């Protein structure tokens, strides 16, 4: 009887020992799997709490970054700081709501902006300096060991209320700069009216970026809507862009072969193509070549395009080699014309932006 009890006790002891070992291994594997944010060894009391757990504080956002020290500890700390800022931003992105791109509507009633309006807006936006969150700073740094290796840690902090207040003030400043254009009533041709209102476009894009950042950092996840009078000004500009008329003039026989397909593509992109009374004219010269290989037609259109305004002033000159491939020759040529039209719409947008200078 005593032997049975002894054997039973030994089995229980072995089971308990195996269970403890399994738990220990599981914990070790979990720590190894979290190498992007390693914790310190031995449960040292001098390790800051934020190393193992991101702080929680109302009205603030935090991010933690870590980097193994391979050589220069200063560089490791700088890299850890960069990762901490990125971690903070990524956590804010998880909960952001709203798609600002969908706020732009097309005047034709399709519920979306036309391709040419999108291209113009992107051209303007590319010239705007991105809005940065100046309030993000590294509040704490630490260096410690994990598995015998040295790591640098950094804690990034953002005062969301302060950031939101600064962004709102900057938005108000931009809106104030737009007010003189709200009251303006330009006259003249469509192009002349648009040219007087175009300075508003960079300001609208700047305000848009600020609004996006405000929704990004605000604890309410909401931005400030564009005031009604500014909405009307924006609609006036978009309407004028949509009303601009362009003409396509082929200067040689190869250009004539592309003309119909180019006009069709430009129309699909939202441009109004008219032979008379155009605000801008595309003067097109082309040299078409091609070859047939592997049951496919390859068409190459080497083109030169000039954009001329209603007064005969040359706004832009560019060259484009458009390529089209298809099993049917006419389809290959049409594909080349489509690519040429894409380049022409980009040049059209750039010509409008050049009027800002």
As residue ranges, the low-confidence spans are: 1-36, 97-111
CATH architecture of the domain at 244-354: 2-Layer Sandwich
Return the CATH topology of the domain at 244-354: Double Stranded RNA Binding Domain
> What is the CATH class name of the domain at 244-354?
Alpha Beta
**What's the end-to-end separation, in Å?**
102 Å
How much strand content do the residues show?
Answer: 15-25%
- Overall mean confidence score, pLDDT: 82
Q: How many beta-strand segments?
A: 8
Helical proportion?
Answer: 40-55%
Put the structure in a nutshell.
With 357 residues, the protein is an alpha/beta fold.
Could you explain the architecture of this structure?
This protein is α/β, with parallel strands linked by helices and 357 residues long. Among the domains are: 47-98 and 135-159, Endonuclease I-creI, CATH 3.10.28; 244-354, Lipoprotein like domain (Double Stranded RNA Binding Domain, 2-Layer Sandwich). The chain is built from ten helices and eight strands. A hairpin with a 4-residue loop joins strand 7 and strand 8 (314-326). Helix 4 packs across helix 10 (329-354) and helix 6 (190-197) packs antiparallel against helix 8 (228-243). The model is unreliable at 1-36 and 97-111 (pLDDT under 50).
Helices and strands, with pairings:
Blueprint: H1 2-33, H2 49-52, E1 60-68, H3 73-95, H4 115-125, E2 137-146, E3 149-159, H5 160-182, H6 190-197, H7 200-217, H8 228-243, E4 245-250, H9 253-268, E5 272-273, E6 280-293, E7 296-309, E8 314-326, H10 329-354
Parallel strand pairs: 4-5, 4-6
Antiparallel strand pairs: 1-3, 2-3, 6-7, 7-8
């Amino acid at each position: 009887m005593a032997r049975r009890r002894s054997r039973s006790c030994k089995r229980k002891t072995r089971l308990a020992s195996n269970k403890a070992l399994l738990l220990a291994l599981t914990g070790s594997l979990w720590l190894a799997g979290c190498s992007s944010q390693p914790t310190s060894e031995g449960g040292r009391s001098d390790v800051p709490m934020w190393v193992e757990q991101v702080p929680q504080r109302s009205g603030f956002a935090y991010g933690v970054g870590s980097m193994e020290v391979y050589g220069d500890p200063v560089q490791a700390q700088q890299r850890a700081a960069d990762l901490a800022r990125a971690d903070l931003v990524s956590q804010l992105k998880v909960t952001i709501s709203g798609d600002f791109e969908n706020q732009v509507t097309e005047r034709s009633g399709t519920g979306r902006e036309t391709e040419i309006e999108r291209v113009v807006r992107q051209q303007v936006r590319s010239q705007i300096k991105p809005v940065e969150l100046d309030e993000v700073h590294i509040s704490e740094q630490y260096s410690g060991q994990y598995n015998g290796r040295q790591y640098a840690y950094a804690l990034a902090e953002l005062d969301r209320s302060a950031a939101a207040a600064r962004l709102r003030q900057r938005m108000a400043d931009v809106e104030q700069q737009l007010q003189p254009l709200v009251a303006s009533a330009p006259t003249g041709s469509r192009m002349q009216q648009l040219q007087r209102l175009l300075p508003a476009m960079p300001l609208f894009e700047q305000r848009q970026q600020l609004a996006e950042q405000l929704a990004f950092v605000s604890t309410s996840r909401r931005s400030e809507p564009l005031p009604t009078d500014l909405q009307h000004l924006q609609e006036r500009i978009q309407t004028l862009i949509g009303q601009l008329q362009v003409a396509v003039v082929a200067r040689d026989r190869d250009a004539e072969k592309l003309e119909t397909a180019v006009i069709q593509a430009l129309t699909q992109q939202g441009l109004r193509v008219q032979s008379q009374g155009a605000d801008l004219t595309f003067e097109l010269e082309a040299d078409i070549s091609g070859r047939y290989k592997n049951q496919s037609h390859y068409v190459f259109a080497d083109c030169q395009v000039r954009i001329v305004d209603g007064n005969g002033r040359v706004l832009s000159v560019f060259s484009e080699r458009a390529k089209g491939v298809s099993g049917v020759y006419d389809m290959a040529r049409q594909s080349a014309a489509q690519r040429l039209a894409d380049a022409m719409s980009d040049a059209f947008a750039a010509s409008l932006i050049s009027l800002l200078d």
